[in-house]
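User: Thanks for the earlier help. One more: Secreted protein. Can you show the sequence and predicted structure together?

Assistant: Of course, both are below.
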Amino acid sequence: MKKLIIIALSLITLGGVSQIVEKNIDKEQVKTVVTMNLKEQDDKNDTIDYGHDDNEEYTLTEKIGF
């Protein structure tokens, strides 16, 4: 029973914190950053270059970051 109460209180606390953070976000600043940094792809037939072509010589652990 104690575990259920702790889980319920944790969820309520996280929900409250997320509501506070959401109300404090500057929506105009977020809109400005998104419109300046994210660009639409011009041609739908163009493939997206993720820049992984030269990473073939790395091992899996190097790709992950270890």
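User: Great, one quick takeaway?

Assistant: The two ends are 42 Å apart (CA to CA).
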